[in-house]
Structure formats: C-alpha cells, structure tokens
Amino acid sequence: MSDTFVTVIALFLAAILMFIFPLMSMSDRTDDVSQLAVKTATTEFVDDIRSTGKITSDKYSKYVETIGTTGNSYNVDMEVKVLDENPGKKASQVETTKIGENVYYSVYTNQIMDALKTDEIYTLKEGDFITVSAKNTNTTLSQQLKNFFYTIMGDDTYTIAAEHGGVVTATGNK
Amino acid sequence: MKIQALAIIAIMLLLPMTLILSAYVKNQAKTLDYQVSYDTKLQNATYDALKAFQLNASNSDTSDIANSKLRDVKAGANTFFNALASAFNMPGFGKEELQNYVPAVVFTMYDGYYIYGPFQNVLTNDVAEKLEDPSVSLDKKQSFKYKAAEDLEDLKPYIYYSCRYIKGDLDVVITYALDNYIVIQGRYRDTTIDIDGYLLNRVEYNSPEINKGNVNTVSAKYRGIDIKCENDNSLKEKVYLTGEILEALTGSRDWPGDNTYNSKYFQDLRCRKINGVRYYATELGMNKTTESFPKQQNLVLTLLNGEWIATNYVSTTRQTEGLGLDSNQQSINDVKNNINALEYYKKAARLKAFLTGDASCYSALYGTEFTGDLKDAGIKIGELTVGDACTLDGKHIVAERDSHPDEYKNLEYFGTENEKIFEFTGKDDPENTSTNGENKKIDIEEPQSSFNEHRLNVIRYSIESNLSTAINNFNSYSNSSTYDFQMPRLKDTDWEKIYNNISIISFMQGLSIGGKIYSGYSVIPNNNNKEVVTEDSIVFVCDDKVYNTTSKYFVNGTTNPVLDNNISSRLTAVSKNTVSRASSENLETGEVRYFYRYPKDNGWYDYDSIVTSLNNNSDYSMQKSSTKTINYNNLYDYMEGFKDELTNKKLIATNYFTALGRERQGMYRVHNNGVFKTLYEGDNE
C-alpha cells in the first residue's frame, strides 16, 4: 500500500469526520429546534382557537408567519369536526348540544380558508373538534445531507411535523 | 506501521462503533420521546373528556338525575376516544382501533364510580327466552337492542365506595362518599337497617313540639354555633327570566336585543335547592320596571332544559299547612323557608344518636322508640373496627392480609385490626391546643380522624380491586394477544386527586413505542362539578368583589381580607361553573341565545346562593389569626375559632356552617327520597 494512497484515504476520512459529521449533526439540531418552535406555535394556535371558538385570518397569518421564521416552508392542514346539530339519539330529552353523543362532519383547510378570505373569520361552537397539523415542504439541509449519504427517504417525506387538536370549549361570535 | 495506517485502522474500528452506539442512543431517545408524546396525548384526551363532561353537566338541568348523568358520562367516554383518535391523527375510524389499547376509563363520582370498558352482556331470562322462542318472529328478535352473550363496549354498572362489615349477627354494607356522608344498609338479626347522614360530632338538634307553619322555633347547634332556618329575605339569586314565564309575569316576552344585561329581565328571587333542583319563588309586584301589572304571581319557578317552567311543586309535607293559604302560596313558602341546613344537622344528630345508642335523642328526633334490636344494631355498628371489614364474599380483609402477608402486599395501607371506625371524639389534636389548657380532640368529621382514614382506604380498596379485575379481564377482549394488560400502580399524588374530587382515570397500554411497549395512565380531577360540596367549596366575597374559596380567603390570603360591608352581603357558592344556563329563542330569526348568570352586580351577587346579609357593621376586618396555629387542612376548626369572637365575626362561622349544610343537603342523592319529610315527620297523615 503506497503512502499516497493511505494519505488520500486518511484525508478523505478526515474530511468526513471533520466537516460532514459536524454539519450533519448541526443541521439535525437545527431541525430539532425548528420542530420545537413549530410544535409550540401549533399548540398555541390551537389552544387559542379552542378557548375563543374562532379562527381569524389575523391569527392564522400570524401562526404561519411564526412557523415560517424557522426558515422552512410548511404545509398547514386544518380540520374542524363540526358537531352535528341533528340529535344522534332518540330520547325524551333531545339535546343537540351534548358533546360526545352526536355525529361529527368534517370541514377541511380549503373550506376554512375560503371562509377566512371572504369573512376574515371562521367560527366554531362548543363541542367541535379542531386539529391543526404542519409539515415542512422544502428539503432541509439535514435531509439533503442524509439523502446524499444514504438515500433512505423519498422526496416527499418530512422531518419537521407538529400537530395538536382538541375539543372547542367556547362558542365563537363574529 | 505508519501513523496514517494506524489512524485509518483506529477510525475504521471506532467509526462503526460510534455509529451503532449513536443509533442505539437515538432509538432510546425516540422511545422516550414517544413515551412523553403518548402520555401527553392520553392526558389531553382525558382532559377533553372531562371538559365535555363538565360542559354537558353544567348546561343540563337534569344532569343530577341518574340516567341523565349516565348519558353525560357516556358522552364523556365518547369524547375521550374521539379526542384520542384525533390526537393520533386518525379521526373518523379511530374508536374501535383504539379500544384495543384502552383497557378502562374510570369516572369517579361522589359515592362510587363507573368503569368504561368491554364486557359480555348477559341478558335477563325473559329476553333470552324470547330469543330462543320459535314463535317470536325474526323481525321482532332483530329489534332487540342487545343480543345474548354479546361483547359490548360500554359503561359497566355503577360501583359504590362501599364495604361490607360482619360482626356476629350484624351484617351491613356501609357506603362512603367523597365527604363524610355515609349510608348504612343491612341486617341485624331480624331488623333491617337503613340510615344515612353526615357524620358530625358536636351537633345538637333542638327538636321542639311540632309547630305547624313556624319554622323559626326549630334550631340546631353545631360546635356551639346556632343554625337557623334561612327565611329572612337574604337568600336570593339573580335570575334571568325568559319565554312564557316572562310573558306570564310581565305581559311581554321581548327579545332584549344586544343589551343582554337589562335589569328588566333580571330578577332577584328567593331560592331553595332540593335534591339537585333549584326552585325560585316569585314575589308580589316583582315587575317594577314595566307599566303592566303582573298577570300572575305566586309562582314557583324552575329551569328545565334551559326553559323556565312554573311548577306546582308541593313539598311532601307542608311546612305551612293550616295557615289558610292556597297551594301556590304554600309552595312558595316552602321555598322561602330554606331549611336545608337544618335538615343537614338534624340528620347528622340522628345518625350520631343511632351510632352511640343515645335513645332519648333518637326518639326525640323521630318520635319512635329506639330500643331492642335496632338499638343493639346501632351500638354494634358504632363499635365496628377496621378488622370487621370484609370482602364481598365475607372474608375479613385485615385477617386475610395478616395471615398471607406475601399475597396481599399491596394492602398494607388498610389499617390495623382494632382501630375503631366511628370514633366521634378521637385522640388529641396535636396541631391545635386550646388556650385554656384543654387539648382539643379530633372530631370525626375532621380530615385527620380515624373515620376519614378508613373511608379513604375503602375508596382505594374498592377502586383497586375492581379496576385490576377489569383490566385483567381485558386480555380476553383485546386483539393484541401478545401484551398482558395489568393495572399499573397509581402514585400517591394521584390517589390524592381521586380522594378529593370527582375525576377521570384513563389507561392506555400495549402500543409499541420502539424500545418497549407503552403503558400509561392519566388522572384528571374535575374541580367544577355539581357532584360534591367540599369544605372548601364555600365562597366568600371581599370588598374588592373578588370571589375566593374559604381557604384562599381566610387561611392563605395574602392581604387581610375585608368582608364586603358596602354591599352588605356575604355569599357562598359551589362554583360558578355549576350554574345552568337559560336559553332564549328569537322567533323571527330562529336564533338561540344562551344566558349565563352574571356573577357580579350591584345588589345581589349571583353564585349558587347567598347567605345572610349584614348591615351597618364596620368591624369586618378579618386579620389573619395570629393567636393560634391554623391547621390549613381543617376548616371546621378554623371556623370554630370565630365562635368566641364579637358578634360580627361569629357570623362568619354561622354563615359558613349554614352554607355548608345548605349546599350539601341540596345535592341530588339517590337516598334522598325521604328528605323533605323528615323535619315534620308524623305531621303528614
């Protein structure tokens, strides 16, 4: 084995060890931080909706802005499960507002965004469910590096994702 | 070898090792991450279930009634699964899938608990026979709601916090609750025993000759403080009237428009809560703000499904019989004479007389002889010890535990053989020595008493034994065959939550989370409920109009609380959130609005209820007591401390004990059927 060959391998390994590895772990940490930020923002956004009973375009754009500051682009999905006013139970005391007894139907991001565009506000009522999830759509640095070294993920997988949901506890007014 | 070669070899050896190690650590971290995230999901779902239960219960006026409560609990369980499903991001089809991992959801209530889980339905004989009968048509058979031996996922029957006691000829079951209320049912020789009430020590009941129509002669004494009938016009509630009732009273049912706070629609009405339902008495000429004279008066009103209805509620025994009043006026007087607190102390006095064999007191209270087997039974029950506690099949728990210490390790908490349960005057209270040198004894109702210790042990024993069976049985229902479902050991802090309030306990097990199988539980206490009135549920108001629970106000208050002497009223409540709402519909637009009561207003405060108003007193400053140590956990003692103070301060204790009695007596109870009769029993023939 010639010296040159060994030196080349050593240099190569040294490059990997000294540059790529730290870079990978750094970018991993960055993703972790983004993940935390997105999670917190999503939880706040959802809890606010749950306690006020409304989604306003202000709140929505503020939320999108907050998660945007992590330097990635996100796909935000919202789903509202609306408590159906038709009583789900034949009983002597019919109550349309009982939570947990009646059927739900779902309203998704597009419908909510339409409502936000026209009315600036989308109202929910006591007993509805709201779920919001955000996933990154761009490829982060850590994903790029990983793809370069070991292509284990497809193009559309995400590394930063957060979701939160729960029962709405107040009926919102316009 | 050259140093480069050595370096390469070293790296080649180290690199794979580091990679494997880091992968391993990452895996562990991921498992932990999953653990935390599943814990959070479970916690959130349980919280949502609780929220749904709270909203359903407080928005429904019938939520106290057993089958309506069952509905609320079931709806809570549904919400739990819905929320869990949406937390796992599989809304819509999650419930059945998730049920495989949720062995039990427990709803602990005032005197027992429901377990939600799978079970095999057993039909009663007649339905089973019909299913077998060839002459019954297939259509008919299919119309039955339940099939024989069907696996159901539902609420199992209510289990009481009860314990069986066997001692010689005595065989009784005592049901405990979250406070010091007990029900004793059973047999002694040929005598049936069925008695209930709160356990209180220093209670006296002045039982006069029965005075028709004059409740003012009746009084009770608790810890040296006089308790009287509340009928002095101070017990009022601000209510919002709507609908037909408003029209009947005022001749109009105007939609109030945006100005929802309009004195025209709010009325201060005298009220009384009986068996969980609040009744209001209308006043003559109550409608001062409109020109038209009220069309109707003398109504007793109540809220049902958000609608005001007039009820011809008539108490089982007339307090006012023989006064020549029409029946409406009689009902009104029954509401106005709020004897709830008196009833509470009367029952307590009776129960004490029963357990201590005080024949003269017992017969004075009930007009019946207290002799023979009944008296023996009472004395024998009063002498029961922890050692007499049995399992349902009649084995003595403590004896079993002591003879097989290995098998019953988890029962160490259950106490010792000879501890007396109903010790009315217990040992010296170490935290409270009186100024006159006499040591204060621990009374039975105080938190440190041996009764309360035993009560908590029974609650824990009941939940633990039933729940571990339920979770074990879950193994035969779950599709997950590899995992062995077991009840985890609940932490002591979680037991504290269960002891002190109604709560929801949920379990989730058997999900794979990388390195291990997930097993977790969550306990969320429900602080806003109609189910239980704790010592700290009584609310006082300061002059800054801030509502505080008793302990916050008097014991832990950072500022010196000053009672409100401008408004000249003090009040008590269970909680704002227990208040039902009234609905009002605009007939033109079909819009329905809900009206919640306003907690603050000039004049009468609106919480659940209001105690005595006080005028022209300036000495309301309640300094935090510095003369003696305050036991923060014992409000009975704390309040008693006001007994020897000036009249004004003494009123605090009077109001507190009256309010506690009134609110507790007003609660819905299955055992309450005879409650209204008791004060004037024997007068109703």
Structure explained in plain terms:
The complex is a heterodimer of chains A (174) and B (685). Chain A has 174 residues and is α+β, with helices and mostly antiparallel strands. Chain A has one domain (28-167). Chain A has helices spanning 3-52, 57-68, 109-119, 141-149; strands spanning 54-56, 74-83, 104-108, 121-123, 129-136, 161-167. With 685 residues, chain B is α+β, with helices and mostly antiparallel strands. Chain B is 33% helix and 22% strand. Chain B contains 17 helices and 27 strands. In chain B, strands 1, 2, 3, 4, 20 and 21 form a six-stranded antiparallel sheet that branches. In chain B, a hairpin with a 2-residue loop joins strand 7 (181-188) and strand 8 (191-198). In chain B, helix 1 packs antiparallel against helix 2.
Largest interface: A-B, 30 and 34 residues
What are the low-pLDDT stretches of chain B, counting only 5+ consecutive residues below 50? 285-295, 314-324, 556-580, 597-632, 673-685
> For the CA atoms, what is the radius of gyration of chain B?
30 Å
The total domain count of chain A is: 1
Number of helices of chain B: 17
Q: How many DSSP H or I helices of chain A? A: 4
Name the shape of chain B in a single word.
globular
Task: Give the percentage of residues in beta strands of chain B.
Answer: 15-25%
